[in-house]
Write a structure and sequence with these properties.
Molybdopterin biosynthesis moeA protein, domain 3, Molybdenum Cofactor Biosythetic Enzyme, Chain A, seven-stranded mixed sheet, 4 domains, elongated, alpha/beta
């Protein structure tokens, strides 16, 4: 069992785990925000025929060669076409057909003139300028051609993608299943959020914080019962969690002072410990095990420590199990708007609020950095990594931060 390893080594161990996302066929409307598990190849042209993108008149461009404002050309209107209908007439010299947006270009026409550029009656239309061939015509296959890969495997499905799938006649699509993440908290001091804590007790907030982090990246969540600080209690609940979940996350019971009950419970259910403790602050007491093809993460019971170790180690694993290939945070250069004077021999991960203003990023740090403080996580949208024995950091320093949510960083 590896213990007290570097953050880099812990990340490498998890990255080397053979994770195989499950694939399922899903109705396209339900597939929104899932990751596509197949290339989508078009078996049709879109549009399937030459069409007009606007209301106007279909005609022959050569009939407009001498047209101008003083001497417009007058063409005979021989038909009118609504979208969804096809004219049986062929346009000849000096003729035009009235046409609506989306309708098929009639035989003989090679250009479309807009209504607003003409003067017309029921019988004829006047054109006041020369029109070039192929003006205002959308050609068959211009949007999508037969054989095109229109959606690539690994893409997160958007509303527009669902429209494309519908256009191609696909009522179902292969996607990666959302990982099922089982969450349980340990601690004799914990009570349900529905209970009023008596002296010495606190409500179980960790399960809900972690559960929200899971849901934010697309995982399914089930919160299991609170476990007492004993191996048997944790072992029994772990058994239920492993039956349901693809990944199990526990909080509490991994610190040295907790007698490592979670780590021992992982072993008791048949898990192999991959590593225990990482050189970082907060979040050093983390235990990771593997049971068959499932990973178990034992996180600290301290709220900020659990939050940060989730983002650094659990989040990439869940994303990989979702079929995602981009699971690293976006890193940006930012200007520090707060001081951080504490110098430590530990790797530190400091929660931060980063925003974009006047062409650059700026980062503010909370006043409270304790791993047990939950309130300062509320505004957190980025993480600031501080290597050992570096600092102090002053207002105005240039730093690098990892954005937890790119959209929220732009204010």
């Amino acid at each position: 069992m590896l213990t007290n390893i570097s953050m880099k080594r812990a990340g490498e161990i998890l990255l080397n785990e053979d994770i195989k996302p499950e694939i399922t066929d899903m109705p396209i409307l339900d597939s929104l925000d899932h990751i596509l598990a197949e290339d989508i190849e078009s078996d049709i042209n879109m549009p399937p025929f030459d069409r007009t993108p606007l209301d106007g008149y279909a005609l022959r461009s050569e009939d407009t060669i001498n047209a101008n404002e003083e001497n417009p050309v007058t063409l005979e209107t021989i038909d009118s076409i609504q979208a969804g209908y096809v004219s049986k007439k062929t346009i000849g010299k000096g003729q035009a057909i009235r046409i609506m947006t989306g309708a098929k270009i009639p035989e003989g026409a090679d250009t479309i003139v807009r209504y607003e550029d003409t003067v017309f009656t029921d019988k004829d239309v006047k054109v006041f300028s020369r029109l070039r061939p192929n003006s205002n015509i959308v050609r068959a296959g211009e949007d999508i051609a037969i054989g095109d890969i229109v959606l690539k495997k690994g893409k997160t499905i958007s509303p527009a993608d669902i429209g494309i799938l519908a256009t191609l006649g696909k009522s179902k699509v292969k996607v990666y299943k959302r990982p099922k993440v089982a969450i349980l908290s340990t601690g004799d001091e914990l009570v349900s959020i529905d209970e009023t804590p008596c002296e010495g007790k606190i409500r179980n907030s960790n399960s809900y914080t972690i559960g929200a982090q899971v849901k934010k990246i697309g995982g399914e969540v089930k919160i299991f019962d609170i476990c007492d600080d004993d191996i048997q209690s944790i072992k029994e609940e772990l058994g239920l969690a492993l039956e349901w979940g693809d990944i199990v996350i526990t909080t509490g019971g991994v610190s040295v002072g907790d007698a490592d009950v979670v780590k021992e419970a992982f072993k008791e259910v048949g898990g192999k410990i991959l590593f225990w403790k990482v050189k970082m602050k907060p979040g050093s007491p983390i235990a990771v095990a593997k049971f068959k093809d499932k990973l178990l993460f034992g996180l600290s019971g301290n709220p900020a420590a659990a939050y940060i170790t989730f983002e650094k180690f659990v989040r990439p694993t869940i994303l990989r199990l979702s079929g995602e290939t981009k699971y690293e945070f976006t890193k940006v250069k930012s200007t520090l708007k707060s001081e951080f004077t504490k110098v430590s021999g530990q790797n530190r991960i400091v929660r931060a609020k980063t925003y974009y203003k006047d062409g650059g990023f700026f980062t503010e740090l909370p006043d409270k950095h304790s791993s047990g403080v939950l309130s300062s996580l509320s505004e957190t949208n980025s993480l600031f990594y501080i290597p050992p024995w570096t600092g102090p950091y002053r207002i105005g320093d240039s730093i690098e931060v990892e954005l937890l949510d790119c959209l929220e960083a732009y204010e």
